[in-house]
């Protein structure tokens, strides 16, 4: 009886199993012709920085893509980082996605809130649902700042926006390329891997990761095409590059920015990058003539450009490693490469003297000239070099009214699919066209509804027709531009432009009604050199009206100046809390897990057990070697180390070493009613253990928050990472004064 019952149960089980065996699992499968797709996006590279576009930086990897494919000389961005990335990855205009400015400059209106709109889904989601493997590696910069922490939410991180895999930096803007503070694998904080015999560099790390990911796809799922988005983060400041690369460009810029710009322009004409009748636009009055500079200034500024150019050349070298490996591993691979050399024009945000550790003028840079490019400094170059990098156009990054802020070099290759290898594409193209092109060649399209959300139509237009014929006519086109009040409208060979501000001159002008509109016929004036507003007033008014229509349709209004440091009411990781409790062990935390401590009076309390032999290690580290402060034990003594921008350092050390056993340790900062200074006091078991005044509390610069161990880099020269506390910490509490 039992035996029979067992047979019946087995038959019943098979009855349930059989339908599953015959089930169609509905696995997404890409079209057989669908190519692998690699999008490479560099950061803050000007139109004329690559040697292949007239500049000085040798970029053989970029040149190889262009020689085997196409070079685009009329490819345009939005004028700034997050907005271009949002547009490129979604195929929509940047305000419509929510990125009218960079993610860390969010304000509470739909076009500027840094919240990726569900009706503007990124193409990674579409490709993933069409059978592609997808990965984003490198700089992201498209997640709201208040959502960047190990606590999430993660739906607006890369892995929530269609990418199967992410490895990169979540810091907004840039990161330290020697000692990055914001590396994540998917949504987990990770620390840089130091390889024996190699000096760590972030760009190299990204490329190693990309090579490894591609090899994994080929090994495990060779039947699936892949979409790899590699955004280097270079050459955004700080300009960090090995010294041996800088040596290659010594003396290349001693002629100065005026002469160099003329030399670049001549090379551009010889290379066919610009038309023979193009005009070199004039130097703006805001930039001094090279001849007016002192010998010391020239020495500093020339070195700045040597470092920047080396940084760009090094970045291309690393990108070349990826492309060479892709070809070597599978020479017959069906791989389409977009190499976009810049997310906006060259960056001139730091003014004529450039930047080093917030020090004023050129003299501090002169004192550390041979250290520029290394890990000790946050450095950037003069705005004048950004103007050179935008040759032959006017202006630079942020100035979306003129092509110096918009136009970048791009090369595209697809072995066996380019009709005229080495040809130049001169038709107008925009960052939002890349997504449209990718979807078309992948044999798919943006669905009308995706994951239950009706989708906004693509604003971009595919340029895949140029793959067969580089001279393929462009469709009739209207494209608006707006960044920080600088605005323009392109329409079929004409552009109307209104510049509102100069990147390094603040405060920006109030109001927008006084901004002067210009008009250019690009069919006859490649570089926007001849303003025709007075000659064609009706044409200008027509285009201004069209800009207004586009602005209303894309959430561009209201126009507003953005003032860094002002509280716009955006959410924060910390929220409204004034008290924070940390129980170690903890992974690396972003410094924005706390309010800005330098703007508050606050106290810290740590309940610890000191081991026999003396206490040693981190209690709390906040920042990096480039700026911040740390509270720790050194040979049993309590230490507070203050570090202002990596150059103004001070310490407070308790007189007595702590005995073994339990201890209640305190530290307080009482900020002055006026100014940035205040008094730091140490406490041991409720009693004062030292006091000193600091004129400014160190703010974290490209750093992190570590509890009971340090991350990123040492705030103080007293220690090296990880400098973990050798005792037991029950809890560390931070309380901000009300």
UniProtKB/TrEMBL annotation:
Stored Pfam families: Sulfatase
GO molecular function: hydrolase activity; metal ion binding
Transmembrane segments: none
Record-annotated Sulfatase N-terminal domain positions: 35-443
Record keywords, A-Z: Calcium, Hydrolase, Metal-binding, Signal
CDD domains linked: PAS_like
Stretch forming the signal peptide: 1-21
Family: Belongs to the sulfatase family.
The protein's name in its UniProt record: Sulfatase N-terminal domain-containing protein
Source species of the chain: Stenotrophomonas humi
């Amino acid at each position: 009886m039992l035996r029979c019952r067992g047979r019946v149960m087995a038959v019943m089980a098979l009855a349930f199993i059989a339908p599953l065996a015959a089930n169609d699992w509905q696995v997404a499968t890409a079209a057989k012709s669908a190519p692998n797709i690699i999008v490479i996006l560099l950061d803050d590279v000007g139109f004329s920085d690559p040697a292949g576009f007239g500049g000085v930086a040798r970029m053989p990897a970029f040149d190889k893509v262009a020689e085997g494919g196409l070079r685009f000389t009329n490819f345009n961005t939005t004028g700034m980082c997050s907005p271009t990335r949002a547009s490129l990855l979604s195929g929509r205009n940047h305000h419509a996605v929510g990125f009218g400015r960079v993610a860390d400059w969010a304000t509470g209106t739909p076009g500027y809130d840094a919240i990726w709109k569900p009706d503007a889904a990124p193409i990674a989601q579409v490709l993933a649902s069409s059978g592609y493997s997808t990965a984003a590696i490198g700089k992201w910069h498209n997640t709201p700042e208040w959502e960047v922490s190990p606590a999430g939410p993660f739906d607006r991180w890369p892995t929530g926006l269609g990418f199967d895999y992410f490895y990169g930096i979540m810091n907004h803007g840039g990161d330290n390329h020697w000692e990055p503070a914001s590396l994540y694998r998917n949504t987990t904080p990770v620390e840089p891997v130091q390889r024996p015999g190699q000096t760590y560099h972030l760009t190299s790390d990204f490329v190693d990761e990309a090579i490894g990911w591609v090899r994994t796809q080929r090994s495990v799922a060779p039947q699936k095409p892949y979409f790899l988005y590699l955004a280097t983060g270079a050459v955004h400041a700080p300009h960090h590059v090995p010294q041996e690369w800088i040596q290659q460009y010594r003396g290349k810029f001693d002629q100065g920015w005026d002469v160099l710009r003329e030399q670049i322009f001549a090379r551009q004409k010889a290379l066919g990058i610009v038309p023979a009748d193009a005009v070199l636009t004039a130097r703006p009055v805001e930039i001094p003539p090279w001849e007016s500079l002192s010998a010391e200034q020239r020495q500093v500024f020339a070195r700045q450009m040597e470092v920047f150019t080396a940084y760009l050349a090094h970045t291309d070298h690393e990108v070349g490693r990826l492309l060479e490996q892709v070809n070597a591993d599978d020479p017959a691979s069906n791989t389409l490469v977009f190499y976009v050399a810049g997310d906006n024009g060259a960056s001139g945000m730091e003014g004529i003297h450039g930047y080093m550790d917030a020090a004023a003028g050129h003299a501090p840079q002169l004192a550390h000239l041979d250290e520029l490019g290394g890990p000790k400094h946050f450095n950037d170059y003069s705005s004048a070099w950004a103007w050179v990098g935008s040759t032959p156009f006017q202006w630079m990054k942020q100035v979306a009214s003129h092509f110096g802020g918009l136009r970048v070099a791009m090369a595209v290759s697809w072995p066996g699919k380019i009709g005229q290898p080495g040809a130049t594409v001169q038709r107008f193209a925009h960052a939002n066209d890349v997504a449209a092109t990718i979807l078309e060649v992948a044999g798919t399209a943006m669905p009308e509804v995706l994951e239950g959300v009706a989708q906004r139509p693509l604003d971009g237009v595919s340029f895949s027709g140029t793959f067969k014929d580089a001279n393929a006519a462009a469709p009739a086109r209207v494209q608006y531009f707006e960044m920080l009040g600088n605005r323009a409208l392109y329409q079929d060979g004409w552009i109307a432009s209104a510049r509102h501000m100069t990147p390094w001159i603040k405060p920006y002008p109030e109001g927008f009604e006084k901004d002067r509109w210009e008009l250019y016929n690009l069919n006859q004036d490649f570089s926007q050199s001849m303003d025709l507003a007075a000659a064609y007033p009706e044409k200008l008014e027509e285009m201004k009206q069209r800009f207004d229509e586009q602005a209303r349709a894309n959430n561009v209004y209201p126009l507003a100046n953005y003032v860094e440091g002002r509280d716009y009411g955006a959410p924060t990781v910390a929220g409204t809390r004034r008290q924070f409790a940390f129980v170690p062990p903890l992974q690396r935390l972003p410094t924005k897990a706390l309010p800005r401590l330098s703007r508050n009076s606050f106290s810290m309390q740590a309940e610890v057990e000191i081991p026999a032999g003396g206490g040693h290690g981190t209690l709390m580290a906040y920042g990096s070697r480039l700026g911040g402060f740390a509270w720790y034990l050194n040979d049993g003594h309590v230490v507070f180390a203050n570090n202002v921008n990596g150059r103004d350092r001070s310490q407070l050390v308790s007189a007595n070493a702590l005995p073994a056993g339990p201890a209640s340790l305190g530290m307080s900062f009482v900020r002055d009613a006026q100014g940035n200074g205040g008094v730091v006091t140490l406490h041991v078991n409720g009693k004062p253990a030292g006091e000193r005044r600091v004129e400014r509390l160190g703010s974290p610069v490209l750093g992190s928050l570590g509890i009971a161990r340090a991350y990123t880099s040492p705030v103080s020269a007293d220690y090296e990472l990880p400098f973990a506390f050798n005792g037991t910490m029950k809890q560390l509490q931070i309380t901000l004064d009300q």
